[in-house]
## 1
Amino acid sequence: MENRISIVYSTRKINPDYIKHLKNSCGLLNPDIIPTENNGEMSLGQVYNQGLAKAKYDIVVFCHDDITFVTDNWGRKLCKHFTRNPEYAILGVAGTNKLVSGMWWQERSSMHGIVNHSDGKHVWTSRFSADQGNKVLPMIVLDGVMFAVDKTKIKHQFDESFKGFHFYDLGFCFPNYLDGVKIGVFTDIRITHMSVGEVNDFWAENKAQFEEKYKDKIPCQL
């Protein structure tokens, strides 16, 4: 697989410095960067489906606009993961191998991944599992803060019935998983997320919608 990636993200206002960060940190020539200015007019699922359609390359990265990539040449590492693990179609930084509800992190012992967080003053590392080196481990769903897909191998696009900015990730990963698409987590690409992650009423509504939609499939365990 050639070392080419597309990067899709939603943002309130396009920041040239962030585009520069993505280009400089990924370690690849001419990444295809697709930002969408979005102040709530579209759900993340809608933005990501548009990005998927526009992406020039097979490997498409979806990320939040408030993350920084700590690992140099992360794009090269990502492409290597897909090349070395051709059975996988969706790879990310955090996920679970046991889904008991719409709150994917409910079973702490089933979580995998390593992610840095920052409140603007301090940075700390959330180690959901041990460092895997350069291995990929199978998961059921991934957290949407940063993940990538081989668009030639997925069977479902993003589910646009989930409104707003929640459950685009589970609503994408879980139907793909159920239809045999292989999903995995790596720990050798590190990001810092400038957020501690919060739930709200919109999240709760989407959680209820997700659980109703998949009530015959949850709980689910690898």
Note: The radius of gyration is 16 Å.
## 2
Amino acid sequence: MGDWVHDLPIWAMVPVVFGVTYLVACGILAIVLALAKGERVRIFTGVSPALLSPLGVIFGLMVIFIAAQVWGDIDRARTAVNREASAIRMVALLAPAFPGDSETRLRGLLRRHVDEAVSSEWPDMARQSASLKVAAPALSEGLQLTLALEPKSQGQILAQREIVAGLENAMDARRQRIIASRSSVNWIKWNCLFWMAICMLIAAAAVHCNNRGAAALAVGIFATGVAVSVLLILSHDRPFSGAISVKPDVLQQARPD
């Protein structure tokens, strides 16, 4: 699937998916009915209607298989963003343990990280071009700053340890969300789903080829089911793309004032 399809809002994705599906279904119906003449009618009607049931079951299982991957990817992406936000919030709460310039610099680095993630990384993740080659510079600076601190009390020792753990947790969560952003349904799964749908439409048209009205109704019902399934998967295919995607709202809420 092209990037432009994933970037469409739902109200625009619906007519595209349904329109293409119905167009293909009409083409299949027209071809089958045009071929259903003479001896071929007996061949087509010889196809058992019972064939439609296992084809529908196989198609449904494929949809469930692909949908499980898609929703799992979204759950992993959302979990990573929530974990990153929680870690940043914890570091911001512990920063006052080192009052003065250290606190100001640490909170400033947290703000910079959130701003860079929202303005730069989120668009890159939507395009699936975000890379792990570049570490989060603000979090790396924050980690170096924290390790350079010289705690003067037991409380500051504990706070320094927790801040380091929080920054490391945030960096790991960032890595996980970038990895999740590159997840999508591959072309093999899409092709298998499409060819299974085409087989279903051909079978429905062939079984009812001696009754044009019944053939059109059967193909239309199957085409609607195919369009709904494709729309469901396509709208959730990429965790950070499209109208139904993981937003940086939680991360922005964790941004220190």
Note: Residues 3-253 form one domain.
